[in-house]
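Dear H.,

Thanks for agreeing to be a second pair of eyes. The structure we're designing against is below in token form, covering all 316 positions.
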């Protein structure tokens, strides 16, 4: 076998590589300079934006865009130095040919990127806000161009793509300074509703942290099976989750103690269970209750309609 042709090709590649070494070295130096410069530009743009605007997310967006733009410029300059035949025009033409394929391959990435930019510009929520998205709820840690990171209340990190956040409903719990809480309290049907309402309001107003304006209120919401349900509503500030749990704990404790001290009944659901064919005459007698089985030999317990009503004792 004749390897002379292959040897000539390898020799030519080696010579071309040796000739290109200065360009490669110089190109790598230029790339390192652009990387360091991109970090400097990012810090500079961030400081300038923060000094002129109070929007932290906008400062992050502009600094990141400046960082990425500087890096892209550095890559193009490095490619031009290492490959003298390469020009930005050739890159644009190549992207034009394969743009459709690239668009389909990176559709989700581009969608999340554009959604992230819109989120950072419109600011429906900011870093530090507490939000709820579907089954996830926590504090916003970071808003990147690809995804938003939240820390849940139980100490876990959730990364949500920006496209989902931008196209779905988000609850921002800390969007306003005040937040209203509520809880349904059940009282007995024999209790005075007006008196119970007054006691509930007194208990709520005595709790530290409950706002006087807007004032608390108590509304009858339901005539339930075992209780009359009164909904207590009150406002707190600030509206963060820790404050919500703390205020609810103190309010419910105060309501329970106030109602119990005044003799207001706090009933729990009750049920009466009757076995099959059980009657008043056999209630409590296990040997006489049929409980769904056929009657055995002997007397069969009478039906309810056959049980005579109890007679009242004559007054002495």
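And this is the sequence the design step returned. I haven't edited it by hand at all.
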């Amino acid at each position: 076998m004749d390897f002379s042709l292959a040897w000539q090709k390898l020799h030519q590649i080696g010579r071309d590589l040796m000739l290109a070494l200065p360009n490669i070295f110089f190109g790598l130096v230029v790339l390192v300079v652009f990387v360091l410069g991109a970090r400097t530009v990012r810090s500079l743009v961030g400081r300038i934006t923060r000094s002129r605007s109070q929007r932290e997310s906008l400062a992050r967006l502009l600094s990141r865009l400046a960082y990425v733009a500087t890096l892209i410029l550095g890559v193009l300059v490095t490619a031009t130095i290492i490959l003298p035949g390469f020009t930005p025009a050739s890159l644009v033409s190549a992207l034009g040919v394969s743009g459709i394929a690239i668009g389909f391959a990176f559709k989700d990435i581009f969608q999340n990127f554009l959604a992230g930019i819109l989120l950072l510009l419109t600011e429906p929520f900011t870093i530090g806000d507490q939000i709820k998205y579907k089954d996830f709820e926590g504090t916003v840690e970071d808003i990147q161009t690809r995804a938003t990171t939240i820390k849940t209340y139980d100490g876990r990190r959730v990364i949500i793509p920006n496209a989902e956040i931008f196209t779905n409903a988000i609850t921002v719990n800390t969007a306003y300074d005040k937040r209203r809480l509520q809880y349904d309290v059940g009282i007995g049907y024999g209790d005075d509703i007006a008196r119970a309402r007054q006691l509930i309001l007194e208990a709520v107003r005595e709790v530290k942290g409950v706002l006087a304006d807007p004032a608390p209120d108590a509304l009858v919401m339901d005539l339930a099976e075992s209780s009359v349900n009164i909904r207590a509503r009150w406002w707190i500030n600030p509206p963060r989750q820790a404050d919500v749990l703390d205020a609810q704990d103190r309010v419910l404790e105060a309501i329970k103690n106030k109602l119990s001290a005044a003799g207001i009944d706090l009933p729990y659901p009750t049920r009466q269970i009757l076995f099959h064919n059980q009657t008043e005459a056999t209630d409590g007698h296990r040997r006489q209750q049929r409980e769904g089985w056929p009657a055995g030999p002997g007397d069969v317990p009478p039906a309810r309609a056959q049980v005579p009503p109890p007679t009242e004792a004559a007054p002495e």
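Two observations from my side: The chain is about 45% helix and 15% strand. Strands lie at 130-133, 136-143, 147-152, 157-161, 171-172, 179-187, 217-223, 228-236.

Warmly,
E.
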